[in-house]
Amino acid sequence: MLNLLKSALWNQEADLSLFNNKGVDWQGIIDVADKQGVVSLVASAIRKLEDQGLSEEYLPNDIINKCVTLQFSIIRQTSSVVPTIESVVQKLREAGIEPILLKGHGVAQYYLKPEFRYCGDIDLYLGDEFVDKAVDSLKAYVDFVDDSYDNDKHYNMKWQDVEVELHRSAIDLTDTQQNKLLYEWTEKELHSNRNRQVVIGNTNVTVPSELFDSIFILFHLWWHFVNGGTGIRQFCDWTMCLYRVGDKLDERELKELLNRFGMLSMWRVFGHVAVEYLGLPKEKFPLYSSKKKYVGKKITELAMEYGNFGHEHYQYMVIDSVKRGVFIHKIMTATYFGKLKFWCFWASPILSLPVIKDYYKGVFLSYWKKLFH
């Protein structure tokens, strides 16, 4: 699957020798790609194998047809979000609010073929001072607004059946020194004059600076990984971001920031995944290091095992373990989260230790309450 994914990411030919036989499990490859959130990319690479000369004997027509259907479905879904982005941005600007698009379609612009990057919901940063005003302005247009809002980070709503999150802040503010410094930097950066404009549909949309994206996308990837797992799609987002901006970044400024946030070790470990497994050229990756190769290998294996944000794997694991009894369920759940946190700790002890301590503290208090109440 990774060979096909790299072929699609870089618009290159795949290694034909890997598929020039009757033993290829094409449906299995498609299933893994779907689980990882990269099925449109892999489907495009499978279709290209036909152009490379792979015969119908080894690549059945029904697989080609399935790839065409999958690509059309993803492109249609992703394109359907664009009118919502345009509408919401327009209404917010009419209210005197300039939203900044985080992730999603903004990140898709880093891909060689943005339409192949699946985009579902919309994340808009407004800042703490504008969220309440934005909610009041948009209530007349949305199908649903969560009136019981009590989240310090964002406000959820639906617009034309698309999930929209209006963010007070870009990251969760947890009580650690490094996280506070990162939070302060993201707020400062998002209010700076380094934000950019990209064209989405027929609208100029504001997106963060390239430096912001290179750090924020990695932090978002790591945060989901340590708290439940993430898949190859999120690694692809960061990889393609660095491909576009890596050689433009000031290494001295970048290193100083990563050290300040406790992210330098993680940057290099996850960078090993981007370079060695996803094909990012080393010259596009600032501060590359081959140290902790084994940690990078295990991170990749866990991403492949758990899939896109780990939801599917965790769901199946819960169903299976519950059937086998409460004790087995607790052991399997602890093992699941334990593996993720163990390897994240080795990727970045400074950043991971507070999260790990908070997690196991919560587990201990939960069982303590059950024991004595």
Keywords:
373 residues, alpha+beta, 5-stranded mixed sheet, two-stranded antiparallel ribbon, globular
Walk me through this protein's architecture:
- The structure is a single chain.
- This protein is α+β, with helices and mostly antiparallel strands.
- Strands 1-2-5-4-3 form a 5-stranded mixed sheet.
- Helix 1 crosses helix 3, helix 8 packs antiparallel against helix 9 and helix 13 packs antiparallel against helix 14.
- The longest helix is centred in the N-terminal third of the chain and has 34 residues.
- The radius of gyration is 22 Å and the shape is globular.
- The model has no long low-confidence stretch (mean pLDDT 86).
Quick synopsis:
This protein is α+β, with helices and mostly antiparallel strands. Helix content is 60%, strand content 8%. The strands form two sheets. A five-stranded mixed sheet has the order 1-2-5-4-3.
Number of strands: 7
Share of helical residues = 55-70%
- Widest β-sheet, arrangement of strands: 1-2-5-4-3
Mean pLDDT: 86
Largest sheet: 5 strands, mixed
Q: What distance separates the N and C termini?
A: 50 Å
SSE topology string: HHHHEHEHEEEHEEHHHHHHHH
Please write out the topology:
Elements (H helix, E strand, L loop, with lengths): L1 H8 L16 H10 L3 H14 L8 H34 L5 E3 L1 H5 L13 E4 L5 H8 L5 E2 L8 E6 L2 E6 L9 H14 L5 E5 L2 E5 L2 H17 L5 H14 L5 H11 L2 H14 L15 H14 L4 H13 L2 H22 L1 H24 L1
Parallel strand pairs: 2-5
Antiparallel strand pairs: 1-2, 3-4, 4-5, 6-7
Helix pairs in contact: 1-3, 2-3, 3-4, 8-9, 9-11, 11-12, 12-14, 13-14, 14-15
